[in-house]
């Protein structure tokens, strides 16, 4: 089953059970974010990827230059371990990790969560690639991906028990758009997936196809 089919199944199961007013709050937030034009303003193909140095779940500082030392990098931004769509996407990347490695690419994931939350996620899903903490989404902001949840949607997430205030180190309302970049060794973005719809993610097969086009 493709990642998109798995994501759709999760969404359909939620939509079947969720009250109509709750679905409308979430849909309204999605429409407002799409209308903001943020995805269109985010960095894309041909842009230079901003450098970063972020702590991993195990305490090391991982830099973009370090990731690119021996080949291209696949950089994916996700909202957090509380997001079922993010978890599916990360597990799918893990399942294809050897395919990335075979192509000489380094894979790394970035979220606004504190390192302890990233460590829990890494251990739960047996992730064998770095999961980095971007507190306040400062790196995501440099890629044009950071946004603040509306008060209405943030209050709804609070009722779900996500506790974004804690897991995001005090930056409860700032999240990144789901995004994945293939970055060449000269820090040029060669392929990009950015979407305001958090139920849609980059297909691993498309990422691998992009890597295959690199010289």
Describe this structure in words.
The protein is α/β, with parallel strands linked by helices. It has one domain: Glutaredoxin. 44% of the residues lie in helices and 17% in strands. The protein is built from 11 helices and 9 strands. It has helices at residues 3-17, 20-35, 38-41, 64-67, 84-95, 97-102, 115-125, 138-142, 151-159, 164-167, 204-212, and strands at residues 53-55, 61-63, 73-77, 106-111, 131-133, 146-148, 174-176, 179-183, 189-194. The strands form 3 sheets. A 5-stranded mixed beta sheet has the order 5-4-3-8-9. A two-stranded antiparallel sheet has the order 1-2. A two-stranded antiparallel ribbon has the order 6-7. Strand 1 (53-55) and strand 2 form a beta hairpin. The mean pLDDT is 93.
Gist of the model:
The chain has 215 residues and is of the alpha/beta class. 44% of the residues lie in helices and 17% in strands.
Helices and strands in order:
Blueprint (H helix, E strand, L loop, with lengths): L2 H15 L2 H16 L2 H4 L11 E3 L5 E3 H4 L5 E5 L6 H12 L1 H6 L3 E6 L3 H11 L5 E3 L4 H5 L3 E3 L2 H9 L4 H4 L6 E3 L2 E5 L5 E6 L9 H9 L3
Parallel strand pairs: 3-4, 4-5
Antiparallel strand pairs: 1-2, 3-8, 6-7, 8-9
Task: Provide keyphrases for this structure.
215 residues, alpha/beta, Glutaredoxin, five-stranded mixed sheet, two-stranded antiparallel sheet, 11 helices, 44% helix
CATH architectural category: 3-Layer(aba) Sandwich
Order of helices and strands: HHHEEHEHHEHEHEHHEEEH
Strands across the major sheet, in which order?
5-4-3-8-9
- The best one-word shape is globular
> Averaging pLDDT over every residue, what do you get?
93
CATH class: Alpha Beta
- For CATH, the homologous superfamily is named as Glutaredoxin
Number of strands: 9
Distance between the termini: 30 Å
Give helix % range: 40-55%
CATH topology: Glutaredoxin
